Amino acid sequence: MRVKITQVKSVIGSKKNQKETIKALGLNKIGKSVEKDTNEMIDGMIKTVSHLIEVSEIK
Question: Are 43 and 3 in contact (CB under 8 A)?
Fold first, then answer.
């Protein structure tokens, strides 16, 4: 399954691990989106920064 991940909030004031997770997902600006195949690693990253991103399923 593929998901579209969009950054909707800034990482300013976030913990270091959350900033690194956003960067590892390939995001760096509000409004930027990436498409990823889901697996356990990506699901964990999404859970870590769920308050900063929106996730939608791609069919």
Answer: no
Report the alpha-carbon distance of residue 31 to residue 41 in Å, rounded.
23
Residue length, the chain? 59
CATH architecture assigned to 2-51: 2-Layer Sandwich (3.30)
Q: Is the pTM of this model over 0.90?
A: yes
State pLDDT tens for residues 6-42.
999 999 999 999 999 999 999 999 999 999 999 999 9
How far apart are alpha carbons 28 and 21 in whole angstroms? Answer: 10
What is the rounded distance in angstroms from the CA atom of residue 44 to the CA atom of residue 42?
A: 5
Q: What share of residues in the chain are helix, strand, coil (percent, to 5)?
A: 30, 30, 40
> Which two three-digit tokens encode residue 2?
């593929």
